[in-house]
Amino acid sequence: MKHVNRTITVLVFIFLYIPMIALAVASFNQGLDIATFKGFTFRQYANLFRDETLLTLLRNSLIIAILSSLLATFFGTMAAVGIHSMKGQMRKAVMTLTNIPMTNPDIVTGVALLFAFTGTMLKINSILGFWTLLIAHITFNLPYVILNVMPKLQQMDPDLEEAALDLGCTPFQAFTKVVIHEIMPGIISGALMAFTMSLDDFVISYFVTGSSFITLPVEIYNYTKKPIQPKIYALFTLMFAVILILMVVMNLLQARSEKRVQHGAQRRVRG
Q: ∠9-14-17 over CA atoms, to 5°?
């Protein structure tokens, strides 16, 4: 049975990553046909970095991703602390409401935000733009931040904050010097997840973006309506590499945090 499980696992990973490997290989291909490799070259990457339109779109996506992830991390962390202070059924009810946006179809969220911003289809061009896009990204990123911070709050020893208060710290000092320090791995993980979710979002962005400020995923949709230029393969490969690195960093932080919790529990048992 173990061999069967391992075989299935390998097949799943092959199915998941072969398209990205093929895309990466195509980004180094001298030819225009993705099915025929005619030689290794960095020309597609050079063409990418000479394309001012794509670089502007990438800059727009990075601006939205960075700002929305930072703001969502701040508000999400504060919300997680507030939810953690609740008791019993109230906490469960609020967490259920918090998790609903993550299971809600993106197209439903996108249309709902569109009508929340405009109220009528007649005002789209004059209202939709940078700010509506930023607000939308903060909105759908908040649950992911809360989901990452809540477990760290639950793992934290409540006596630590009380000890800080007994030693003369104000509630604010106890929060910034003790609580934030203890839940920092969850905050960082939430910020990284929010950044990746924002960077590659298309469906929600498509409904709330305007002609004055367009992100890369929205514009790439127009590229797919005609033969894709090889420099797009290079762009996708770079984006995949960045997201992969962020995911590895997030997993390492989570593993490090779990080890620290285990060591702390072992010390308390020994003591």
A: 120
pTM for the model: 0.81
* Cα dihedral 177, 90, 198, 139 sign: negative
Q: How far apart are CA 186 and CA 148, in angstroms?
A: 5
Q: Give the closest residue to 42 by CA, choosing from 203, 174, 234.
A: 234
CB atoms within 10 A of CB 216: 23
Token pair recorded at residue 98: 């918090």
The phi, psi pair for 169, rounded to 5°, reads -75, 145
Amino acid 228 reads I
For residue 246, give the amino acid letter: L
DSSP β-bridge partners for residue 40:
29
> Contact at 8 Å (CB) between 234 and 51?
no
pLDDT digits (tens, 9 = 90+) for 82-130: 998 888 788 888 888 888 888 888 889 888 888 888 775 445 556 788 9
